[in-house]
């Protein structure tokens, strides 16, 4: 098995997790623990700055274990398990998901940032919601949780369209009518914001 050394620590490189134009991500292992190795082809500095912005804001993100600035490599914590999207496809989300989501949103508002609130960018581990993307932007009311993102955390028309675009199955029986979806969004906002 191929190995790589970062900051005097050896990692065994496992299978490919995903690949984009900007990076490749492999599973890596050391001392029986599993991590992700990100090799950036471009935008390494942007990714590191985004990570720092998210961590400073108090958003639960996978921790960086080691990085090599010269080689543009980052080893980070692997948050296993299903994403919020995976959970939502099967069932409506429990209140705990929304409690954690609105807590992260509160931190974002105070720090004047927006996350990409699509549910595939979040995973739950040990009762904590983790933002597993590095996608962060300056705060904009048009793309915040209340005006945009929350509509993808319940089975709305927007969420079903999103599933269609991703070529995933849509359950037409679960699509909420607009007035029902709006009531649920208001109730969630009042309860957790």
Layout: helices, strands, pairs:
Elements: E1 3-6, E2 9-19, E3 23-30, E4 33-40, H1 44-57, E5 64-68, E6 73-77, H2 84-90, H3 95-111, E7 113-115, E8 122-125, E9 128-131, E10 136-138, H4 157-165, H5 178-192
Antiparallel strand pairs: 1-2, 2-3, 3-4, 4-6, 5-6, 7-10, 8-9
Characterise this structure.
A hairpin with a 2-residue loop joins β1 and β2 (9-19). The chain is globular, with a radius of gyration of 18 Å. It has a six-stranded antiparallel β-sheet with strand order 1-2-3-4-6-5, with no helix packed on it. Strands 7-10 form a two-stranded antiparallel ribbon. Helices cover 32% and strands 28% of the residues. With 193 residues, it is α+β, with helices and mostly antiparallel strands. The model has no long low-confidence stretch (mean pLDDT 95). The chain has five helices and ten strands, in the order ββββαββααββββαα. It has helices at residues 44-57, 84-90, 95-111, 157-165, 178-192; strands at 3-6, 9-19, 23-30, 33-40, 64-68, 73-77, 113-115, 122-125, 128-131, 136-138.
């Amino acid at each position: 098995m191929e190995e790589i050394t970062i900051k005097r620590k050896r990692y065994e490189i496992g299978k490919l997790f995903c690949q984009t134009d900007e990076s490749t991500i492999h599973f890596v292992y050391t001392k029986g623990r599993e991590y992700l190795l990100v090799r950036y082809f471009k935008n390494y500095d942007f990714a590191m700055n985004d990570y720092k912005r998210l961590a400073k804001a108090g958003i639960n993100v996978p921790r960086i274990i080691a990085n090599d600035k010269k080689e543009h490599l980052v080893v980070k914590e692997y948050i296993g398990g299903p994403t919020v999207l995976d959970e939502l496809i099967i069932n409506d989300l429990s209140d705990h998901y929304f409690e954690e989501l609105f807590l992260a949103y509160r931190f974002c508002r105070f720090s004047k940032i927006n996350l990409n609130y699509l549910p595939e960018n979040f995973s739950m581990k040990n009762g904590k919601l983790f933002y597993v993307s590095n996608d962060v932007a300056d705060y904009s009311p048009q793309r915040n949780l209340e005006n945009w993102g929350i509509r993808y955390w319940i089975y709305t028309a927007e969420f079903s369209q999103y599933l269609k675009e991703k070529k995933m199955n849509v359950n037409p029986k679960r699509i909420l009518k607009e007035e029902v979806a709006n009531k649920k969004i208001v109730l969630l906002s009042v309860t957790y914001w």
